[in-house]
Amino acid sequence: MGGQVSVVGSVNEYISSEEVRNYVSDEEFERLKRAFARFKKGGLSQDDFKYHVLGGAPIPNGTLRELFLYFTRGADILTFENLVTALVGVCKVEHVQTAFIQNHPQFISWSSKTPLLSTPIRDSYSSFYEVMSYVTHLSIAEVRELEKVFATISDRGRCRITQKNWEEAAAGCFPEWFVKGLFFIFDDNRNGSIDFRELVCGVSALCRGPVPSRLSFLAKLWDVDLDGSLSQAELEKLYEQLQVPSTSRTIAASHGEKSAPVDFATWAITEGAEYVKELSEISLEIGHICLGLRPESPEVEHQIISNLLERTSNRLLPLSNIVSAQWHREWKKAVLAGNPPPPVDNRDIGGTKEDRSPSSMVACITTESACLRSNITPGDYIAVPPVVWRALLRWHGSQQSVDGQFTRRRLPADIAEDGTEQLELFPLDVILMRHEQKKAPTPREESSYIPWAYAQVSRMTTVGELLKMAKLELRLGEEEARLWLITKKDEKEARRESKDSGSRRNDTGANSKDGRIFGPTENLLLDEHDWPLAQVSKSATNLKVFIEIREKFTGIWPEEARMASIGSGTFGTAHTNIFQKGTVGLVNSGNTCYRNAALQCLAHVAPLTEYLLESTEDVERVKHASGYVITQEYIKLLNEMWATAGKIISPSSFNSAIDETGYFSPGQNDCQEFLGFLMDQVETTLNQMSLVERGSQNQQGRTPASDQNGEEPTEEESLSAKASTAWANYMEANNNIVSKLFAGQSKSTVTCQSCKKTSSVFEPFTVLSLPIEFGEALLLCATVVKRDGTPPTRYGFRLPKDSHIGAFKDAISEICGIPSSRFILCTEVEERIYCFREDTMRVAGAIKPSSTVFALELPEDNDGHWVLAQQRFLQVNQEPHFIASVNGLSMKKFGLPVILKCTEKTTGLDLYADAWRQVSRLIRPRTTPLSRATDPCEFSAQEFSFTLATVDSSFRWCSKCPPLNFCMGCVVPGKDDLVLGSLTETTCLAFDWGATDLYLRYDLEGELTTIEDSSVNLTWQVHYSSSSIEALLEKYSRPEVLDCPYECSGCHRKSEGHRVFTIWSLPRYLIVQLKRFKYLREERRVAKCGRPIEFPFDDFDPSPYTDPERRSIEGKSTRYNLIAIAVHYGELFNGHFVAFTRIESNKWLHINDTHVKEVSSSEVDRDHAYLLFYERKGA
């Protein structure tokens, strides 16, 4: 071909679109059409052709381009007509194949084996449904239907039915001992759960096949010791539970002194028939109604439904479904006559237009929205267990597409209106409103609401459950919405209700905890999430609430802003009794939560607040001070806060003054930075007041810290004298209440490492910043897979961030005892297994934190000859596809990778034996009794349950055959022939399982079983464990090496210097910042450390962490009590601040902007603390 790309072939290389139908079946042609229909662009590009027609096979780009142009006949897009004519011709038409290979010799391999258009039927490709149908008494359709029910009753995370799921499926309709016993015998492998395979086999044995076999299966209920027979003690339990009189206790003992299951079956058919009858009926009811098996005939359906309804008629079930009595009569008439019943029809008991909710024009967010007609009588309906309702819908469908399901809860006597326990025929209709969007609303304008959604819920539903449901269904964020009870009617609503006066009653009165009715003057925030809706609106049939949405970019709650602007508003249901002065909520006027939290904490420092409230007139005398405006606005805000209680106010004037400084950006900001800024502004103003009071003309403000210490004291001067001099200089310039309350003193000591001379500097601080240690380590897990076939073990590791693969292997070797040269690390990268053969690779760059790492043991006499193997399963692809050779089989990898020994002397038989040794623990013995009819594996003569195939690292394509062969792996013969010469360096081996062995004998649960070493939990605990404020103080005083060389005044040269920070003196009010944010230079981002920090609420003593010389001078400890906390949630640019302030010994206020709630000490959030405000005891 001379390297040129042939654009089109000769005329003989193509067939016409009409001829295509002569070579393919209708089924094949329809499959090709469906596969092509998935592409909405009207054709396939070259990339589409590569991945969807050729399945992503590793074909060279030149060959791919040549083949694509052949299919498109030189065009850029492949149409359906060109696709099928070229594809069918190459795959099925002999003269086209011959001409194609002559003109394109690069595809000469197709002359011996052309790509298959359809997959030949082979037993090894059988689907799970076909295998399970073959070994049970169920059809493929019945197995598929059971799978749908299994999905609804199983644990979705584990894909298994747990004991809890099993009991929920039984729905309290059957004897407890029988339900638990049935779970026991369905759980064939005794792992405490039921997988789908066990369910299918169990349902078949329980409900289908000969009656003696079904009764023998039930005998396992009493086989406690699992020996396959019933002892005398087990028989006594059987007689007792079946209430068999002594005269009828005649089960034979054919196994010596024990009875076989067939002995029980024989007795149950003859003498014990009347005692086993109910048990047999219950078995059929559970298998069909609860587990999803469709009845074989209308007669069977009538029997199981009628028996269950009769059995549960006197049971008080928590939930029931309402079914039309008229439809039930029609159903009974049809099944008794042996005819198919009509679809379920509840239209005759459904409510009329007048009965429906007034919000019928909005979407319903609950699973049902149907209301019963208001004049319904007990004779119009029957109450059935929900399991019966679901079964009837599965079997017969519904005549109504919507509004046909009536699920009702049983109300306790204290909730029901007449004081008696009863079904809640008429649930609560909850109308969810939202703010009406207006073009130009004004802040003081009354809110108006429009319907948004509708929910039909029980009165037992709590406020929290309703809010959670609304957030989920309306796709609202966790902190974006809250509920308000509408007790105040706007004009539109009043007019609307006057028009609907003839419709259903609309009582939205709300009861509080003490029984009083909330008045209609103001809507009420529903923040007591544990309240049932019956407590909010006990006598109502519908309830109106509105969902308030926090503004996305500003963080403002619209309702709070409105109430603050009109000077009215209350907190909500959770804190209507908080009336202490200063207890107010502050409106978040747009990402100002950091200000609100700092203001609430600082305002709780009583001496400062009292001083500022009494200094309003004095501040007016220093209007020229640089901090005057901020200080004045802060004092005004304090006056407003202390003039009321239990209200919401807006610090709009204060925020405007802050914004005018330009110090803070409009977005997210730091609470500590704002606190420092505010205190500095107040302190500057108070310094000016002090100067005015002394009659000084010096207008100098606060002296910078670098200038407050003056010249460095002489060496002869004591540290105490240095500290006193520095403190005197500081207080001379800052003689105000802020410094007196919050200022402490720290000492910075630098030691020259050459001459050991020290130099100390004393500086004031108002906030003690304590850095939190970030996770400066890699947290990894490695699963060690040994070659002896024992279950793998998972270990946990914490490695330095600059660790290499070699260091990781050394750590694994130390804990598992295998030399690092005897195993290899591997992980999955883009669906391929990647082995780390170089120990110098960095762990951080090679392994993602979420990756699964395997340490695979190598053979003992390892000389580099080994091969990586993993299990896979090939199954006929039921999805539309083009070429069967490519996508006709779907491939699924499972299990753990293993290493197989492959030396120059290794034979195929050796390879299979090595593979079997490592996976045999996952294969059930063929003698294990299963809950099934027949198992063809019992008679399988094949020694191994799998074949080994040569594949590349994707485990999809063969490593030996050319890519154009589309080979999915050549089988390695299990013979005495040597195999090393037939394997390449890149070859992996795939375990190809036979369908029957995989589905019936492979232990899927055992595959996931991994022994978890204690190191996993230990490393996670260390990595994410909480620290303590004492540990942070201790780290604060650790020596650190200066980044730059230190110029020593003693030896007069630059050398390495070590610096130590210590606390010299503690303030009256100690503010501690837990520094959670850090700039990660390598990642070029600011990260937050979420590590919890433990700190005491009372009797905190930081004196052990003050400077040792200072402690020797003072000789006493200083203890503090916590009075306020600022808490941060989220990240730096997407976070939220709230405050906790102490009001009594064990009582705190949780202040989240306008949301104020009284909580106990145990409810205070310690884990996310950011600023701690401590008050010295006795201050």
TrEMBL record:
Residues 693-708 have a biased composition (Polar residues). It catalyses: Thiol-dependent hydrolysis of ester, thioester, amide, peptide and isopeptide bonds formed by the C-terminal Gly of ubiquitin (a 76-residue protein attached to proteins as an intracellular targeting signal). Residues 584-1177 form the USP domain. The keyword RNA-binding does not apply. Residues 296-411 form the DUSP domain. GO terms for biological process: protein deubiquitination. It comes from the Eukaryota. It is an enzyme of class 3 (hydrolase). Residues 179-209 form the EF-hand domain. It holds the Pfam family UCH. Its EC number is 3.4.19.12. Keywords: Calcium. One of its GO terms (molecular function) is calcium ion binding. It comes from Mesorhabditis spiculigera. Residues 709-718 have a biased composition (Acidic residues). Residues 494-507 have a biased composition (Basic and acidic residues). Residues 494-516, 693-720 are annotated as: Disordered. This is ubiquitinyl hydrolase 1.
